[in-house]
Write a structure and sequence with these properties.
heterotrimer; A mainly alpha (562); B alpha/beta (256); C alpha/beta (256); A: 22 helices; B: 256 residues; alpha/beta; Rossmann fold; globular
């Protein structure tokens, strides 16, 4: 038999590079050469220059040495989480059981599927690691002046870790996909999971950015030695120390040994054992993983019960087709697990926000004042409003669009109901940060109400902008498509610029024309009046922009195609 | 295997998914070189029988053998001797038709000029020449179906499972697939197991037709035999008589 | 509207997408209350024609009117008197059948008990009672198609466009759709414009057949006329004689 895994990997590679088509080999080679040059030359140079600009290498070195092993673990944890969860999140967005049916009916052994999809993933994630790893690792290499052999060893360790992690994540992905099966219900759950998983990746990233000292302190604790990611991290630490070029003496190295607990050999053995253990485990389990079950569709049938109080309330409040459309749209939105997890994601982001601010106020010792930070809250909460409503979850297929279009003024009716749904969803999204902040800063009821109103208006504005933009470029249920990315980024940027824009405009006016709008307004409205205007300005402009986007969206959704 | 051999044999085959009984006590025999048509109502789990017989799924109870081999113990060999056209295929939408067929060929151990020639002539026979290097996501549903038919036949399987092979094809392409099946069955003794809703297709192509109702096989006979035994004018009417489904005129207008 | 009025009229209708000419100089007259069958190969321009006629797509040149309304000018009026069934199901997977139909009704400006009575009896006729409150994600493709067919009939359109209404349905469901079309056309003067690949279905349901090939109308006439003028056995045979598609035996095996 031919090497079937090779053909699967080749097909995966072709799919990955389908955008390049004719120039596949050339382009990929060039990309790898560029990445290698970047990793070997540019990244250390840039990082070196950057670090040099912040503080002298001597200070840097002592700082790094103090928190060295813990910091290394933090960095490796980040890489590890990225490699383990990012492919998982990526794969969950599109379940590929249908392809398994092709593999299995062509008598491909399950281990070949496992190996093929694994090898197929390496080119892309390898490239990502080649770009990111030097950024994270080279500060250590520079600080300890690690010799070339040492650097080569460090990168070998990292390469091995990357391989074993991709293997593991590939295996986990397959298990989850098989559990969910190929059905619209399974796909929905998978997409919901992918959002949650992405959230888990973000947490160590936030940690790395904001709580570096605390996190590396925590990870330096011996209890973390049971976690697989610490072994390669400690091994990298060992290699770095051993091949140092700054003349660390034997006793200093021994001191590190006391911190690291496990010696180099043990770390290496543990890492190798962990990586290798999953090869036989995955291969023996493969037969059980890659089975085609009937999928969730045949197993569970959801029957709709009576409408709840809330929906009946809407029905009696808004009689006529508009009310009916809104209710249906609300049901459709609320029953999709992916939408709910996006709302959850938004709520988490919205709660992280005041936590960050608390961190800042603690550091700077400032007294908290609601009015001062309200514009800032608006700006950050705009993101929360965009995320659940931009891109997917709008239309499930092009044919749905035909159905909506084939009703008289269908697009406009449909959009109005969707926006009404969004406005209702905005309530929890703006309530969550309000409650979090009220509790954290012991705010008075009035400030809490102020914050809630500001947040709600901003979220509604963001909902209008993102729905309007989505309607101009609907991308159905494909989160991987470029349309989805474009819609998401455009909505984010537009909301941010709308909120910050007026501030910038006044600054430019001041600098460019010598006209101080703030002072001008202050003289008209008085100081407290000015504060109100300043607060209201951004959200008002956002609502206007949102209205415009909605109008354009309705027009484009209902337009007659040419 | 000789012409009078048995390609598929099942005994008291059952498959349940939780409360759903998808296949119920199925006893079936299909001679090699035969063209068996499987007619059944729309229902969840429609493809279950095909998946069991092609070794992709294990039955809950009962036994089945395909090409003289037991499906539980020889699933691997069965898979390499059979071809399957799934109903909702997971086509690689970012591959071109040629790349996709190359891939399927490679999975079945075909390579080199033999494979290339075969792909070229299959694609041109199905009227896809000129489009063979376009990505599959730009294909219409009928064209995708054609590519899948080609992929199923590529490695000359002894037994081919077709799940709704012509539902998306225009009449010319449907006739082509029909002729292809007839010629292959006659000249190469390939056995076909066809699930379809199109009674006229089954009537033209199949030599034996089995009708399923409520998970169990109600009748197995030649199309003519079924038509005669139910004294219907064609297979469609016979199906309707057996499964039911005629609604009278008054109730058809009652909703207005 | 009197029985011999013209429901659809097109004059030299043209549509091109870039370099591809999808519809070419189409002249079409469809009488009110008739059942027009639109046949042609995959990609012949059938769906494009339907989209132009239902006011969703703008023609490149030429004139088209539906129920006396210019499709370019009175789009909302055109949409109010027509119903459209797209080719592949575009259902909301997380709504129940009743909720989906309520949604379509509301889009067309209807609600209340009248709409609900209509939904209930339509679902009853199509055999979906008992499942009407289950989410559509658990429906088989045939059941989804039934829900879609009901959605196009909900607002009592004068003209219904059906794009491949039965490609996924089992014979019983097909028979119900067939009867529903016949009864509606006869009793209510509803006009049906049906794109299909199923020649058997077209023969049984349609009183006029138009054959489209490469964007041009090749022939039109009653099924009987078409069969006689082509000297064929049935409509499928006539189609194959007119459009072509017979491939001889040697070619069918040459790829091996």
């Amino acid at each position: 038999m031919t090497r079937k895994w090779y053909h699967i990997a080749k097909a995966e590679f072709y799919v990955l590079t389908s955008g390049l088509r004719r120039h596949r080999k050339v382009t990929v080679t060039i990309m790898y050469v560029l990445a290698a040059v970047w990793a070997a030359y540019f990244a250390p140079m840039i990082i070196g220059g950057f670090l040099g600009a912040i503080m002298p290498m001597e200070v840097m070195r002592t700082l790094l040495m103090v928190m060295f092993p813990g910091l290394m673990r933090t960095v490796i944890l980040f890489l590890w989480a990225l490699l383990l969860l990012f492919p998982l999140s990526h794969a969950l967005q599109e379940i590929k059981i249908g392809q398994w049916e092709i593999f299995l009916s062509n008598n491909v052994k399950t281990r070949d599927i496992l190996a093929g999809t694994f090898v197929g993933k390496i080119p892309m994630y390898g490239l990502i690691v080649m770009v990111f790893a030097p950024l994270l690792i080279s500060p250590f290499m520079l600080a300890f002046e690690v010799s070339l052999i040492g650097q080569a060893l460090v990168y070998t360790v990292i390469a091995l870790m990357v391989l074993s992690t991709i293997w593991l994540s590939n295996f986990i992905t397959a298990i989850i996909q098989a559990r969910l099966g190929d059905s619209s219900r399974g796909n929905d759950i998978a997409k919901a999971l992918s959002v949650v998983v992405a959230l888990i990746v973000i947490i160590p990233m936030y940690g790395l950015m904001l709580f570096m000292p605390q996190l590396s302190g925590i990870l330096g604790i011996n209890a973390f030695l049971v976690m697989p990611f610490t072994w390669p991290a400690d091994l990298v630490s060992w290699v770095t120390i051993t091949f140092n070029g700054i003349g660390l003496t034997g006793s200093q190295i021994l001191a590190f040994g006391a911190i690291l607990q496990l010696d180099m050999l043990t770390s290496a053995l543990l890492m190798a054992a962990f990586g290798l253990a999953f090869v036989p485990i995955a291969i023996t389990a493969a037969d059980r993983v890659f089975t085609i079950s009937a999928g969730v569709r045949t197993e569970t049938v959801t029957t709709v019960g009576r409408e709840n109080v809330f929906l009946r309330g809407i029905r009696s409040f808004a009689k006529g087709p508009f009310g009916a459309l809104t209710i249906v749209s609300l049901k459709d939105f609320g029953r999709k697990a992916q939408n709910l997890s996006k709302i959850f994601y938004g709520v988490v982001l919205a709660i992280i926000l005041p936590m960050l601010m608390q961190q800042i106020t603690i550091v700077e010792g400032e007294v908290f004042e609601a009015a001062e930070i309200l514009p800032m809250i608006s700006i950050m909460i705009g993101v929360v409003g965009v995320f659940p409503f931009a891109g997917t979850g709008f239309l499930e297929s092009k044919d749905q669009l035909w159905i909506i279009r084939s009703a008289p003024k269908g697009a406009s009716h449909f959009m109005r109901a969707r926006v009404a749904t969004g406005f209702m969803m905005a309530i929890p999204l703006s309530l969550a940060p309000t409650i979090a902040m009220t509790l954290m800063f012991n705010l008075a009821l009035l400030s809490a109400v102020q914050i809630f109103c500001a947040a709600y208006v901003t979220v509604c504005g963001a909902v209008m902008v993102s729905m309007g933009i989505t309607a101009q470029n609907p991308n159905y249920e494909d989160t991987k498509s470029s349309a989805h990315q474009t819609v998401l980024i455009t909505s984010m940027m537009l909301v941010q610029f709308t909120l910050i824009g007026p501030l910038f405009a006044t600054i430019f006016l001041d600098i460019g024309l010598g006209f101080n709008l703030f002072r001008f307004m202050e003289s008209i409205f008085g100081l407290s009046g000015f504060m109100v205007v300043e607060l209201v300005l951004g959200p008002t402009v956002l609502l206007l922009v949102g209205g415009l986007m909605l109008h354009l969206g309705i027009r484009s959704l209902g337009k007659v195609e040419v | 295997m000789r012409n009078n051999g048995i390609s598929i044999q099942t005994q008291a085959l059952n498959k349940t998914f939780g409360p759903v009984h998808a296949v119920r006590d199925l006893d079936l025999e299909v001679a090699s070189g035969g063209r068996f048509g499987f007619l059944r109502p729309n229902r969840a789990g429609k493809t279950t029988t095909v998946r069991i017989l092609s070794g992709l799924m294990k039955p809950t109870s009962g036994s089945a053998s395909v090409l003289g081999m037991d499906i539980l113990t020889h699933a691997g060999e069965i898979k390499s001797l059979t071809g399957l056209l799934p109903e909702t295929p997971g086509l690689y939408s970012k591959l071109s038709a040629v790349e996709f067929l190359d891939f399927i060929g490679a999975l079945n151990g075909l390579e080199g000029p033999v494979l290339d020639r075969r792909i070229d002539s299959l694609l041109s026979m199905l009227g896809l020449e000129g489009r063979q290097d376009d990505l599959l996501d730009s294909y219409s549903s009928g064209m995708k179906q054609k590519v899948l038919v080609a992929s199923t036949l590529l490695h000359e399987p002894r037994l081919v499972f077709l799940d709704e092979p012509t539902s998306r094809l225009d009449p010319s392409a449907g006739a082509l697939v029909k002729d292809l099946i007839l010629v292959l069955a006659e000249e190469t003794e390939t056995t076909f197991f066809i699930c379809t809703h199109q009674t006229s297709f089954a009537e033209d192509v199949c030599d034996i037709v089995g009708i399923i109702n409520d998970g169990s096989l109600v009748i197995v006979d030649s199309p003519n035999g079924i038509v005669e035994s139910t004294s219907a004018k064609d297979l469609e009417e016979a199906y309707l008589k057996i499964v039911g489904g005629q609604v009278d005129r008054d109730s058809l207008l009652a909703w207005r | 509207m009197a029985k011999n009025d013209v429901t659809i009229r097109t004059q030299r209708l043209n549509k091109s997408f870039g370099t591809v000419q999808a519809v070419r100089n189409l002249d079409l007259d469809v009488m009110a209350g008739s059942r027009f069958g639109f046949l042609g190969p995959n990609g012949a321009g059938k769906t494009t024609t339907v989209r132009i006629l239902s006011g969703l797509l703008k023609q490149t040149s030429g004139y088209a009117e539906v129920c006396g309304l210019d499709v370019n000018k009175d789009r909302d009026a055109v949409k109010a008197v027509t119903g459209l069934l797209p080719e592949t199901p575009g259902l909301y997977s997380k709504l129940s059948a009743v909720e989906f139909l309520e949604f379509i009704g509301a889009l067309n400006g209807r609600n209340g008990s009248d709409l609900h009575r209509r939904i209930d009896s339509l679902l009853g006729i199509l055999g979906l009672e008992g499942r009407q409150d289950d989410l559509l994600e658990s429906y088989s493709s045939g059941m989804k198609q039934k829900v879609l067919v009901s959605s196009t009939l909900l607002h009592e359109p004068k003209l219904v466009f059906l794009d491949e209404p039965t490609s996924r349905l089992d014979p019983s469901a097909t028979a119900i759709i067939k009867d529903l079309i016949l009864v509606l056309a006869e009793e209510t003067d509803t006009t049906f414009f049906i794109c299909t690949h199923m020649t058997g279905f077209a023969e049984a349901v349609c009183d006029v057949i138009g054959l489209l090939n490469e964007g041009e109308l090749v022939t039109r006439g009653s099924p009987q006329e078409l069969i006689e003028s082509a000297g064929a056995r049935n409509l499928e045979d006539a189609y194959l004689k007119i459009v072509g598609g017979k491939v001889d035996r040697e070619v069918l095996l040459a790829w091996r």
